[in-house]
Amino acid sequence: MTGPQGLGVRDLSVTFGQTQAVDHVSLDVAPGEVVALLGPSGCGKSSLLRAVAGLEPTRAGAVSWDGDDLADVPVHRRGFGLMFQDGQLFAHRDAAGNVEFGLRMAGLAKPERRRRVGELLELVGLDGQGRRSVATMSGGEQQRVALARALAPRPRLLLLDEPLSSLDRALRERLTGDLHRILRRTGTTALYVTHDHDEAFAMAHRVAVMAAGRLLQVAEPRQIWQRPADESVARFLGYRWFVGVRALRAAGADVDAADDATVALRADSLRLSAGGPLKAVVLDASFSRGGTTLRVDVEGLGELEARAFGATELAPDAVVALSLEPEVALLPGAV
Amino acid sequence: MTVALRTRAASRVGPTAAVVLVGLVPLAFLAVFFGWPVAAIVARGVVADGTLDLSGFTEVLARERTWEVVGRTLAQASAGTALAVLLGMPGAYVLYRCRFPGRGAVRAFVTVPFVLPTVVVGVAFRGLLVEGGWWGFLGLDGTFTAVVAALVFFNYCVVVRTVGALWSRLDPRAEQAARALGASPLRAFWSVTLPSLAPAIASAASIVFLFCATAFGTVLVLGGPGYGTVETEIYQQTVTFLDLRTAAVLSVLQLLVVTGCLLAAAVSRRRRESALRLQSESTVDHRLRRGDLPAVAVTVAVVLGLLVAPLVSLVAGSLRTADGWGWGNYTALSTTGSHDALEATVWEAALNSVRIAVDATLIAVTIGVLICIVCSRRPRRPAARRTLSAFDALFMLPLGVSAVTVGFGFLLTLNRPPLDLRSSVVLIPIAQAVVAIPLVIRTLLPVLRAIDERQREVAGVLGAGPARVFAAVDLPVLGRSLGLAVGFAFAVSLGEFGATSFLSQPDRPTLPVVIVRLIGRPGVDNLGMALAASVVLAATTVVVIGLAERFRIQTAGADL
Question: Is residue A11 domain-shared with residue A103, that is, in the same domain?
Fold first, then answer.
């Protein structure tokens, strides 16, 4: 098989002693596609990424590019890019020197290298700052340099290992947007490891949810969000309550789903709304994230959480009406 | 698409082979110039006429003289260690926990004795204690006390720096909590601070004990005629009595002592890395307070009385001739001494020393760098990792070997076929290199090990092959510390006496050998010359180390 098929991972296993870090994983990444590997820490996602890069010896299985097996291709000949959580910039080179490194390894002539470095620094929003020492740069700037360095040699595949995790929240949200824009504009094929589902959903064409070395579900973000494969995927995404469709209907809600399916709920699934179909008693209320989170006892369903817009003053024991979000997350079968 | 069920590590075969090749050179070097001589010593002690024969041991151990020597060695080492720790603790506190103008200068000065050649230290104390010297009235010349004082002079800074480095970063809030709970300052120190410092104290003490137990040059110069330790006894038995068997048995005993010290040091080093709350230094120290007075008093007394006095007296003595003050002793360095005490002039010896030190430094740094390159690799395959840690342990073996053992071992093996290096100009440089290699390793290995493995991975993914990864990541880091390693190796070679004393030839002596010979000859002129030569040697050493220290660049491990 030849042709532009991108990355192929077949039945890959990585072990450390007795621990099975990656357990018979198969995954494809098409050219131009960004796939996020999403999972809690220690689930094996970084090991999978490192195995793809050729940095981790594999126990079994194969990694291929466009159908060609990469087993005998050493790290430095794979033509991939890699970006770590903490940049790992070369401290003894300035920003431009870092970006230039891969171009030198590729044997590009100096004028071409210089042009490309300028191009990349501009792309990541650091134009004109090439002579700065990386030690004097902020965490966000360092990650921008790391991204420019990884992208400079036009890698066939960019591997990102929690690239934004070491940044504070505000910076991370801004860089998530920038990174998304840059990956799309350059048409980069990428495998993106993260434990943050907001980041994964914002960044990726497809998301692969991983736990205990196995892939639980690979699908588009919307699909994962609304049709999690099972309870563990749903729980990882933040769904905390699981209610049968029949019980919901009996409580008064209108759900468009098979009778034996299960609805996954999180606080944002239920909204305070006058005339809503569900009746509930308020147990507790606290202000958070620009709204109010309510602990409620829903008639026929038990204790759940709901959200209200703004800082709503609600006395405990108040009786309220709730409505269910229009497109609920559904799990096949009973939980 | 292939699905293969085998361990995939093909990409590592190349680099692994390269690392093995790099490792083979130092392995071969140490096998020939360390393993073989040591094996020869052991064999000489336990094998007679081709069969195992422990009678040598029983015979030597039955001698009263042996136990006298062993007892004196242990007593000397214990006393030296205890005193160095007792005096060094206040020093560590004052120099690393208190803030005062000139602290940096005092810290630097305290280190000077440690880098001085052993022979020079012996001569300096001798000059202080002989009749007519500043402390001549104490009548300590050639006594146990004199030797111990010189050993403390040497090792004071080991305690101050090792303990001080930890103390300066100890979180003061634990002690503050104890004080808030009602503990007096002394009580808080005793029950909170001291236990936290224990690992550093143990580590310093085991190193100091090792240095004291293997001291050779100092003891030979300072100890009186009947004064012998295991080290000097090995030398006497070999050179004076030509009893190689006794020397071999004593060497084996010495190896056991050294190994014990090294194990103790390794254990306490590992414990030091335990969970202590450490702070950056600047947040912890405070201005001198009234309560610091006792510690300051002890430190001033030690620095002036024990460190400054011998050095000043050495310089003063070198400027004193029979006709009063003058440069006479220095002009005499171009002669062979009165009554022709030497076969070459002191300047000729100095030139010879420099030549030998250059060769020894080249060898030590080359071998040391190769060892560090191999030992700083972090392979991912378990088998490779196991091999490497075995390598690692192997290379650490010579870390604490006594110089006398090296010299004696060389005498037993390399002075005769199949490898007769007796008249070769590389014999002494190689011996000195074996002594200096541990220092090179201790300087470079921590720096290389501090490199984050992911730096190498990033370079690799960006297209750099193993050699270019090394050039891009390891080499810049190595380069920054190389100056220091070179300086240490050069200084050690320049002052090396233990191994050299066995191997040097009368017509081509080194500076330390000449100094000892001058000390041993009668005549005020010869003593004056010895003092002048010592000043020259000491000054050269301090300048070399000072220059090397300038190459040291403070680097934090994480952002290398």
Answer: yes
Indicate the burial class of B334 (C-beta count within 10 angstroms; 0-12, 13-18, 19 or more): exposed
Tokens (6 digits) for B410:
């060389």
- A8, A80, A135 ranked by CB distance to B559: nearest: A135
The pLDDT-based confidence of A149 (bands split at 50, 70, 90) is very high
Domain boundary among A231, A265, A297: A231
Flag whether B560 is in a domain. yes
Shortest distance, CA B457 to any CA of chain A (angstroms): 7
Cα dihedral across residues B247, B249, B254, B255: positive or negative: positive
Cβ of A10 within 8 Å of Cβ of B1? The answer is: yes
**Does residue B10 belong to any structural domain of this protein?**
no
Is residue B249 domain-shared with residue B386, that is, in the same domain? no
pLDDT tens, residue by residue, A220-248:
999 999 999 999 999 999 899 999 999 99
Does a structural domain hold residue A2? Answer: no
Same domain for A297 and A150: no
Task: Domain of residue A145: give its range.
Answer: 7-231
**How many whole angstroms separate alpha carbon B266 and alpha carbon B352?**
37
pLDDT in tens, B489-501: 999 899 999 889 8
Cis peptide, bond prior to residue B506, ω within 30 of zero = no
Mean pLDDT of chain A: 90
- Residues of chain B contacting residue A91, judged by C-beta atoms under 8 Å apart: 559-560
Q: Is some CB atom of chain B closer than 8 A to the CB atom of A98?
A: no
B385 and B427 housed in the same domain: yes
Q: Does residue B558 have a pLDDT over 50?
A: no
Whose CA is closest to A36, among A233, A194, A182, A175?
A194
The structural domain count of chain A equals 2
Number of domains observed in the structure of chain B: 2
Q: With 50 as the cut, is the pLDDT of residue B7 above it?
A: no
Q: Do B1 and A64 touch (CB under 8 A)?
A: yes
Confirm whether B469 is domain-assigned: yes
